[in-house]
Amino acid sequence: MGPACVLVLARYPTPGQAKTRLIPALGPAGAAHLYQRLAEGMIAQVRAMDAAVDIALWYCGASEAAMRTWLGDGLIYCSQPEGDLGYRLTTAVDWAFAQGYGIVLVSGTDCPGLDAALLNQSLATLANGADLVLGPAQDGGYYLLGLTAPQPELFQDIAWSTSAVLAQTVAQAQRLHLTPTYLPTLTDIDTPEDLAHLPSSLRPSSPSGPNLPSSVSTDPCPGP
């Protein structure tokens, strides 16, 4: 089995475009600041994994230069294509396997409970013969998906951004004769109600926005 790659879908934290459902509670700058910290935390957890993995950041909302200024070197930067989440996931996963990776994990940046230990567990599960790993989210979606081969049909006919995502994904997996291995159920931070699940280190203390370069695209992209 070839090397492993973790795909992280993220957007540039522009106030008014990042975490828009949290704006009523935090304001545009506060929501963007929280998103910035969630994204940075996710990258830090991948870097803390036991195994050496490549990290491919599939980004939108800014240029590669702006993303690199924000998150630094050591990442593979890939621009997300236009299209719904299913198309973007298919594109990213197919790209990774085409590069020769044998294990691919894919996640967004919304779940602060997804830590290096769970990433290590996912990698080991797939290395030991599982063909699909899913991390269920409390809202009916999933916070992580892991594969050992491209499965584009897994991302088709899914009602994205609804509570049916996980169930529909599992149904697709059954049709593809894949057997999911499940991680613990965790909470994505998407709505004001979800803020109660934030760890204390991420609790907003001020509405100040992120300290980021101002050269960004104004073209919004759907969040992962």
Structural features, described:
The protein has helices spanning 23-47, 64-71, 85-98, 116-127, 165-175; strands spanning 4-11, 54-60, 76-79, 103-107, 132-136, 142-147, 180-182. By secondary structure, it is α/β, with parallel strands linked by helices. It has a 7-stranded mixed beta sheet, with helices on both faces. The longest helix has 25 residues, at 23-47. It is globular and about 45 Å long.
What's the topology here?
Layout: E1 4-11, H1 23-47, E2 54-60, H2 64-71, E3 76-79, H3 85-98, E4 103-107, H4 116-127, E5 132-136, E6 142-147, H5 165-175, E7 180-182
Parallel strand pairs: 1-2, 1-4, 2-3, 5-7
Antiparallel strand pairs: 4-6, 5-6
- Order of helical and strand elements: EHEHEHEHEEHE
> End-to-end span in angstroms?
28 Å
Count of β-strands: 7
Give the integer mean of the pLDDT values.
Answer: 92
Strand order of the largest sheet: 3-2-1-4-6-5-7
Shape: globular
Strand content bin: 15-25%
Whole-number radius of gyration?
17 Å
Could you say which structural class the secondary elements and strand pairing correspond to? alpha/beta
Largest sheet: 7 strands, mixed
The DSSP helix count reads: 5
Helical fraction equals 25-40%
**Unreliable parts:** 206-210, 213-220
